[in-house]
Write a structure and sequence with these properties.
The complex is a heterodimer of chains A (422) and B (378). Chain A is α+β, with helices and mostly antiparallel strands and 422 residues long. Chain A has three domains: 18-121, Orthogonal Bundle (Butyryl-Coa Dehydrogenase, subunit A, domain 1); 127-234, Butyryl-CoA Dehydrogenase, subunit A, domain 2; 241-401, Up-down Bundle (Butyryl-CoA Dehydrogenase, subunit A, domain 3). Chain A is 42% helix and 13% strand. In chain A, α8 crosses α11 (315-337). By secondary structure, chain B is of the alpha+beta class. In chain B, the strands form two sheets. In chain B, strands 1, 2, 3, 4, 5, 6 and 7 form a seven-stranded mixed β-sheet that branches. In chain B, strands 8-9 form a two-stranded antiparallel sheet. Helices cover 51% and strands 15% of the residues of chain B. Chain B has three domains: 7-117, Butyryl-Coa Dehydrogenase, subunit A, domain 1 (Orthogonal Bundle), CATH 1.10.540.10; 123-222, Butyryl-CoA Dehydrogenase, subunit A, domain 2 (Beta Barrel); 226-370, Butyryl-CoA Dehydrogenase, subunit A, domain 3 (Up-down Bundle), CATH 1.20.140.10. Classes of the chains: A alpha+beta (422), B alpha+beta (378). The complex binds flavin-adenine dinucleotide.
């Protein structure tokens, strides 16, 4: 991956030194919290204030949600914003905030960034990721959706699957095949697709939790203007790697607040049920806490050490450990609850009117926040599949971090057309 | 001798497998759950009439077949493979085991065994109360005023009663002035409210049963806690056999998927990350099978049965749970869908872990049983 192109628009803004840029960002964050106290400001207004102050992605250029600061400064800014009760943008628009934004910034035109980034951040427009297909999951580069150039437009047909939030999204990151005669990695091109345009049909898929969070997306001669192409024709794989690395660090990076996330939910349960404490469970909780903290610190360290370099293979460490930790934490919660875990309501399709928060828990009988540990447990099983399976991440770490020899590939160099699939 | 399989075992397995895979495949369990139907009454009748399954665990003097524990384990293993959730476990295992204990001192218990053997009655065992799956010593439900003919009034709430919303009769463990006793309550009597629980396991219905001054009958003057303890041992072995059946099926299906699903131009089962995980799954199933069946081959009421039950309970439940999780992982996205059966096995595994006293509790008791000198090490 070429460092020169991927960093062209980041981390260079102001000409001042890093310390000054950091101080400026923190001042800006304090100012926003003072002028728009997140607990009393409508969410959209708060997010607008953050974007306009350059706090959305501090390493982005000014005017596009950033201040040209080092990426590592984001954690300190988030601590101020979220510490005052601000929302976690990643959870509001996960595909948008963590993946689409850096990809559009790095590989799209300035006009495209201007059009897309602000509505993305303030959640006027949600995003989804049209990568996986029935025949192409782990082997993403084997995908079959075709895009053909007709005049100044691309005409796209094919089927995508497991697309989270496609039913809510205005925009999609789309990876499609533009040249089937090239070996699989070389015939791909990357686009931004308007999900509201003709030829885009979204069909809900029910997950094992009962919810329909992901979808099948059928594309039938959907049209994309050439100005919505990200990167060069045939360069889609390289662009997708930016997205995937960012996805993995976004998922894996986690929150930088100690004891937040899934381990925080386990701690709340532990506090609320002293009747269920045993020495064995206590030992497990402490072990999980230490691991969660080491994972959290690893995320912080990589963010800071990364500086303004692009996300690398280390991002996969956060995704791998975060996913497995989440699963063990929620397993622990069910073990704490014992038979009570079976008594939690609603493991079928959820009541659509439920206000569910980031952790997916409906309120308790007295309105108190009760986390639905059964559902969280079930949902966590996807963590080691979505965004790249743990098997694939281990392959990546072995090969890219440790330099181990790659797997013997049966499809190397062969035109995509000639490789058996299914 | 342990692990000596007879032709009767084999014939029984073949017959039950044929019945379950044709009349009660996993799809059927899924459909029943979706429709809120408790169970397939025609299948229940066929089980009794053609195979005599409900009579298998009932002693001959009470109209049963007097089969061995291994026979019953074979039946449950086959039921586990299709995630069968009908009243067999609650009626033909749990209730029969309680009634076998009570029959020597209560004629009503013997009579009821006869009715179960014919496939004529379904009986649910109501022991667990809030937060405690199988803790007979802490039961708070009361049974007051036994008259000379044993009539009592019961008050209390029972949880996780398998088939509790629909069974004809309830066997309730309750406190009397004389100590804990097993009482028989008509499911439709005044003062009995039953509510199906919507829980993790979609294919095995359970219920909350509320008793408010409900009429019942004490079944004999036997220490109810001691009875519950003996029942738990046998039931643990049989539940473990059911788990073996489920886990083996999960491995079979996962191996099949890994053979047919291609990525990178080759079957995913050819990647060592997948192959090794599957091999571990298979090893786990074989270990679980050994633990469950060694116990099933022991003499009822013996110390070896108790030991075997604790080993089986300590191992098989976790084995199924891990296998079900691996199954989802190796299926990728498709394994996370509602339509795929993988989650039904995971849900069953999670609920099983809390039945009959959870597995952690079983491990503590195993330590006490085998190495009392090592207890209390911290
Ligand atoms: C909840 C959820 C949300 C998702 N959201 C999105 C989304 O928004 N957009 C999107 O594009 N996709 C999404 N996905 C899809 C996800 O990225 C794929 O499911 C994932 O990449 C795996 O692909 P697959 O499902 O085809 O499994 P397969 O690739 O068929 O994998 C099956 C098994 O084989 C293993 N395997 C495959 N190749 C190898 C190898 N080389 N070495 C070792 N093991 C291997 C896998 O690890 C897995 O265990 C989502 C998935 C889930 C579960």
């Amino acid at each position: 991956m070429s460092t020169a192109t991927t960093t062209s628009s980041t981390g260079t803004g102001t000409g001042s030194d890093p310390g000054a840029r950091r101080a400026r960002a923190l001042d800006a964050a304090r100012a926003v919290v003072a002028s728009h106290p997140p607990t009393s400001t409508p969410r959209r207004a708060f997010l607008e204030a953050c974007f306009d102050a350059g706090l959305a992605w501090v390493h982005f250029p000014e005017g596009l949600g950033g201040l040209g600061a080092e990426p590592g400064v984001q954690a300190a800014v988030d601590e101020i914003l979220q510490g005052a009760g601000g929302p976690i943008p990643f959870w509001l628009n996960p595909m948008g905030y963590g993946m689409a934004a850096p990809t559009v910034l790095d590989h799209g035109s300035a006009e495209l960034s201007e059009r897309l980034l602000r509505p993305l951040y303030v959640c006027d427009e949600l995003w989804c990721q049209l990568f996986s297909e029935p025949g192409a999951g782990s082997d993403l580069a084997g995908l079959a959706t075709r895009a053909e150039k007709v005049g100044d437009e691309w005409v796209v047909s094919g089927q995508k699957v497991w697309t989270s939030s496609a039913h809510l999204a205005r925009w999609a990151l789309l990876l499609a095949r533009t040249d089937p005669d090239q070996p699989k990695h070389r015939g791909l091109t990357y686009f931004v697709l308007d999900m509201h345009g003709p030829g885009v049909e979204v069909r809900p898929l029910r997950q094992m939790t009962g919810e329909a969070e992901f979808n099948e997306v059928h594309l039938t001669e959907a049209r994309i203007p050439d100005s919505h192409r990200l990167g060069e024709v045939g360069e889609g794989w390289r662009v997708a790697m930016t997205t995937l690395m960012n996805e993995r660090s976004a998922i894996g990076g986690g929150s930088s607040v100690r004891g937040s996330g899934s381990i925080g939910s386990a701690l709340r349960l532990w506090r609320s049920r002293p009747d269920l404490h045993t020495p064995e469970l206590r030992a497990r909780l402490v072990e999980l806490f230490a691991r969660a903290d080491a994972a959290r610190l690893t995320g912080d360290r990589f963010r800071i050490e990364q500086g303004d370099r692009p996300a690398g293979a280390e991002g996969s460490i956060g995704k791998l450990t975060g996913a497995e930790l989440n699963q063990e934490v929620y397993e622990f919660c069910l073990d704490v609850l014992g038979p009570d875990a079976a008594l939690y309501s609603g493991y079928g399709p959820p009541d659509e009117t439920d206000e569910t928060d980031e952790t997916g828990g409906p309120g308790g009988p007295g309105g108190e926040p009760v986390e639905d540990y059964g559902r969280l447990f079930l949902r966590s099983r996807a963590n080691t599949i979505e965004g790249g399976t743990s098997e694939v991440l281990r392959n990546i770490l072995g090969e890219r971090l440790l330099g181990l020899p790659g797997d013997v590939r049966v499809d190397t160099g062969k035109p995509w057309r000639e490789v058996p699939r299914g | 001798m342990e692990f000596t399989w007879t032709s009767e075992h084999r014939d029984l397995r073949v017959a039950v497998r044929r019945l379950m895979t044709t009349r009660a495949p996993v799809d059927r369990a899924r459909a029943l759950a979706a429709d809120g139907v408790r169970h397939d009454t025609e299948l229940w009748a066929t089980m009794a009439e053609q195979l005599g399954l409900q009579a298998l665990d009932v002693p001959e003097e009470h109209g049963g077949v007097g089969g061995s524990l291994v026979d019953v384990a074979v039946v449950l293993e086959e039921m586990g493979a299709v995630l069968h959730g009908g009243p067999f476990l609650s009626t033909a295992v749990l209730a029969v085991e309680v009634l076998r204990e009570l029959a020597p001192v209560a004629d009503a218990a013997g009579d009821l065994l006869g009715r179960i053997a014919e496939g004529g009655a379904t009986v649910a065992v109501a022991l667990a109360e809030d937060g405690r799956a199988w803790s007979p010593g802490t039961v708070r439900t009361t049974a007051t005023g036994p008259t000379s003919d044993g009539a009592v009034r019961l008050t209390g709430t029972k949880q996780l009663v398998l088939d509790g919303a629909d069974a004809d009769l309830l066997l309730v463990l309750a406190r009397t002035d004389a100590g804990a006793r097993w009482c028989l309550v008509d499911g439709t009597a005044d003062g009995v409210t039953r509510e199906r629980q919507e829980g993790l396991d979609l294919t095995r219905p359970s219920a909350t049963v509320r008793l408010a001054d409900a009429p019942g009958q004490v079944l004999g003057d036997l220490d109810g806690v001691a009875v519950a303890d003996r029942v738990r041992s046998v039931a643990s072995v049989l539940l473990a056999a059911e788990q073996v059946g489920a886990a083996a099926e999960v491995v079979r299906r996962t191996a099949e998927h890994a053979t047919t699903r291609r990525q990178f131009g080759r079957p995913v089962g050819s990647f060592q990350g997948v192959k090794h995980r599957l091999a571990d799954m298979a090893v786990r199933v074989e270990m679980a099978r050994s633990a469950a069946y060694w116990a099933a081959f022991q003499e009822r009421g013996s110390a070896d049965l108790e030991l075997g039950a604790l080993v089986a309970r300590s191992y098989c439940s976790d084995a199924l749970l891990q296998t079900a999780k691996d199954c989802i992982q190796l299926h990728g996205g498709i394994g996370f869908t509602w339509e795929h059966d993988a989650h039904l096995f995971l849900r069953r595994a999670r609920l099983d872990a809390t039945l009959l006293g959870d597995t952690r509790h079983a491990r503590e008791r195993l330590l006490a049983h085998t190495h009392p000198d090592l207890q209390g090490v911290s």
